[in-house]
Amino acid sequence: MLPSGQTHAVPFQINRLLKRGMQGLRFPAELEAQFERESGAPRSRRLWREGLISIFAFNAFYVGEWLLTRQISGRELAVQLGLITPLCLLVNGLMRFNPPRWLREGSISVMSCVIACAYLALQSGKGPVAIAFTLVGVIVTAMFAAVVMRLRFRYALAASGLITIAGALFLLVDHSLKTDEKITGLALMTIAVGIAMMSNYSLEREERLGYLRYLQSEADRQEVSEMNSRLAELSSMDKLTALPNRRTYEEVFERMWNEARQEGYPLSLILLDVDHFKVLNDVRGHSYGDDVLRRVGSLLPQALRSTADVAARYGGEEFVVLLPRTDAENADRVAERIRALVEMAGSPPQTPLPERECLMWVTGSCGVSTCIPPAVGRKEMLLETADKAMYQAKAEGRNRVCHRSLDSQSGSDRRVPITGHVA
After folding, report:
1. Rounded distance, CA 187 to CA 255, Å?
2. Predicted local confidence at residue 421, as pLDDT
């Protein structure tokens, strides 16, 4: 994830690092801190693993050469095994604890300088051939730190600079070499270290570019995901009322019906129809009718008990409410609350029409049905029963609540008067 306020920083940093020439490698502070947090632990593990292999390889080389050729003195072997190897193992062991950057990179830099200086001190005054091999060893040490261990550029530059200075001083004070040999050795060492630094810079730049591209791809993926979520949300909502639409209602109804059937709890459904909506449209106009539907759509969520209840626009001037784990009595309470809210606040502001001098107040008729879904049965039966109850409420004068049970469609119902409240 991108740090806060760094949305535009990543593309800028990518473009900056892709420019010709040697650009500064460090990111802005916040992005640099995130880069270190996310790359520090894997880097420490890699340094520990590769460092351990390198320590074993170098010691195997020294011991093998001492056993086979005896060209390495016992003093050199003692320094290698008794001083350099323990120090290398100590530094390598630090990597197991994921140290901060300054300690991780700094300890390896110091260790590289110590190894180079130890080689130079051991070979001092041994003649041109020994010195040539010593310079090769120093170059290998600098390249190992810069290219194999891939120290961060600043640390690699500092270590390589100190190693080069130590090599130059070694050549300067050694009396067994001629001036031209010293110049050749110094040039060779400087060129090799310079190549190592160029490689180190390129490696770190590619690592940082890879990280930036990863962040960019994650940001793009997140943006696409958010857009898809937004599109899915828009496709599931009714544009006029901002309630879930018919398709979403069908999906939720299917899920609630199956859950209620599996767990054996009651499921209730309320069907609300705005009374005289066609007349209201004809008298006040379609724009006012849309205002009524928006107003009713905003009232329905206020009547629900919890986020488990779902109110949706069913179509036209009809709304549907699904109430999981709700028996008939509590469903009637919710329906009466809906009816009362619509009667009290369902009418948008209106002015009398000149030709009629009348105001029209919005009311709604509610049909309620409750059942524990049977093992064999269609969920549509619950909706059909609520629909019958809703038409019964309209037939009895509108602006009221009627209830029918799914298992008693022959005529048994429960009616709530206009002025009544379910107790």
Report:
1. 78
2. 38
